[in-house]
Amino acid sequence: MSPELYSVLILGKLSKYKVELKNMLADVCEYKYQLDNQFFEDLDAPEVQKGNVTTILKVRKTSGIYQLDFQTEGVVVVSCDRCLDDMEQPIESTDRLKVKLGDEYTEIDDIVVVPEEDGYINVAWFIYEFIALSIPMKHVHAPGKCNKSMESKLNRHLRVSVDEEDELSETSFETDADDEPREIDPRWNELKKILDNN
Description:
Layout: H1 3-11, E1 18-20, E2 28-35, H2 37-43, E3 50-62, E4 65-79, E5 86-102, E6 106-108, E7 111-115, E8 120-122, H3 124-134, H4 148-158, H5 162-174, H6 186-197
Parallel strand pairs: 5-7
Antiparallel strand pairs: 1-8, 2-3, 3-4, 4-5, 6-7
């Protein structure tokens, strides 16, 4: 996260996600955040625009380093990879962030440094990143739940007749850029036999 974005978070609508470090009242503090559509809207990040997620944050101070442990669980709304309609995707993650106080906001290796004069960190963007990283690479509706119209269009485009398949394979392997016939690698013929048997 850039220092500019960090400044925006501190001053903006997400100031309730500021966690006091310098003046912690105990060695261990716990926070609970209920993240709804407004949270994602305020962040205006591209991957997730809606959701209902609970994050429990435990902050522990140990010898100048603050250890922030996030436990996140809930549901976010993302686009289905197959039909592009919105779908609910359950998420769950456990993440850790190490923070220390310094001169200015920066990130060094796996430690975030926040200005000592401020004495706190805004965790909104970090929570969002943990949520985004916990979304599976592939997310599709359960079988039968996709948009029927889109699914039928997709199936039409994926269907290839045997004749078209033969034409494609001949074009791909038997001709070069000048459309002159060339010898087919015998390994392709063996692979083609396997495909024909299935």
